[in-house]
Design goal:
The complex is a heterodimer. By secondary structure, chain A is α+β, with helices and mostly antiparallel strands. Chain A is 36% helix and 14% strand. The chains are: A alpha+beta, B mainly alpha. Strand 6 of chain A pairs antiparallel with strand 1 of chain B, so a sheet runs across the interface.
């Protein structure tokens, strides 16, 4: 194990103050993740440093930020992936979200977009707390849970950890803050795959076809590139466009 | 609570910030640069055409200027803009029909290769002819 002296250049902002960068040097081992260095900066240098993290293994999606400009989850990003060995590592909050303080952004806009599709992020099997031993059995045994036959077609979205990284990476979000965004549109696609009810399908497609829906996407594919969970939001947006276009052609032929 | 970068025009500047970004973002930025260039050209073209209203003398003077090598270079730049924007637009249209989405980077590279070949041939013709 080799110890590294890493310099972090961290974006700082407190309400009523001018944004700036603070520099902290910490020692971490060469297998450390970036979140470990942020933890040390907080513990050893500045307890007023505000950042978010919980699971440390890419499940909660709370620690998303930008490392040298690119959106990452610092809990799974090793220094060997992002650090050149001598320059300060720049850490910024996610873009396209209001900054609350330092590295923490207000992600409520993200969840508002997700709720537009009435999409339950968690699987049905996980959405209800067990009330009895029987219920517990039903939850933990996959065979008890009714899953659609074509699960493989849309199960990638189940991997969404709601980190907001796709919204930060999206160039359209920069100029259209009403844009439903990659995760919101991927959620619509997921909800659309889940239902065969024509009224529900029409509602979801109308949502995607709106002024701030799929047509605002400019195909930069940064959401798909940045997504740490391979949800592929851009692919879902293109699939929605295809279905909307096909429906329009069918309608015109009638 | 405040926004990190709250000015809309400043945020639009991110369109051209490709540091640490992947090929799709380069395609996005190039498309915008080419589009802005083509819009500027359109207005310049209208201004140039307006010289016709000032009689044959003005027009002939412009044509002799347009035959200068440095002016011909502008033709090559214009053609580059048309090729980049047109071919990339075709790629985006295919994506919109859910065609080749998984191969979007390869498609961009292939179209840009076509653009380079076509531009080279055109440049040879413009300067050689």
């Amino acid at each position: 194990m080799t110890l590294l002296d890493v310099t972090l250049q961290i974006f700082r902002y407190k309400p009523g103050e001018q944004p700036h960068y603070d520099t902290f040097t910490v020692q971490v081992d060469d297998t450390a993740h970036v979140i470990d260095a942020i933890d040390k900066a907080w513990a050893e240098h500045d307890h007023t440093l505000i950042f978010r993290r919980a699971c440390h293994h890419s499940s909660c999606g709370s620690c998303g930020l930008r490392i040298n400009g690119a959106e990452k989850l610092p809990c799974i990003t090793r220094f060997s992936e992002v650090w050149d060995g001598h320059s300060p590592l720049r850490l910024d909050p996610l873009r396209n979200f209001p900054v609350v303080s330092d590295l923490v952004v207000d992600v409520s806009g993200f969840f508002q977009r997700m709720s537009a599709s009435n999409m339950s992020i968690t699987r049905d099997a996980e959405s209800t707390l067990p009330l009895s031993v029987e219920d517990l059995d039903a939850v933990v045994q996959p065979k008890e849970v009714e899953l659609p036959d074509n699960l493989s077609r849309f199960n990638r979205f189940e991997n969404c950890i709601e980190c907001g990284i796709c919204m930060s990476a999206c160039p359209t979000m920069a100029v259209d803050n009403k844009f439903m965004g990659p995760a919101g549109l991927a959620a619509i696609y997921r909800a659309r795959q889940k239902t065969g009810d024509p009224r529900e399908v029409a509602h979801l497609l109308a949502l995607a076809d709106g002024e701030h829906g799929v047509w605002r996407c400019h195909s930069a594919f940064e959401c798909t590139e940045a997504c740490p969970q391979a949800v592929d939001p851009a692919g879902k947006i293109m699939a929605l466009r295809r279905e909307i276009t096909e429906n329009r052609i069918k309608k015109a032929r009638r | 609570m405040a926004t990190h970068e709250h000015h809309k025009v400043r945020r639009a500047g991110r369109w051209f910030d490709v540091r640490g970004r992947k090929l799709g973002m380069w395609a996005f930025a190039l498309n915008r640069i080419a589009a802005i260039g083509l819009v500027v050209y359109l207005y310049l073209h209208l201004v140039v055409l307006s010289t016709l209203s000032r009689g044959p003398g003005s027009w002939d003077a412009f044509v002799s200027l347009a035959r200068q090598p440095y002016f011909l270079l502008l033709d090559v730049i214009l053609l580059a803009g048309i090729l980049i924007h047109g071919l990339n637009g075709l790629r985006v249209t295919l994506m919109g029909f859910d065609v080749g989405v998984k191969k979007q980077k390869a498609l961009f590279s292939a179209f840009m290769l076509v653009a380079v070949v076509a531009l080279s041939a055109a440049a040879l013709k413009i300067f050689g002819g």
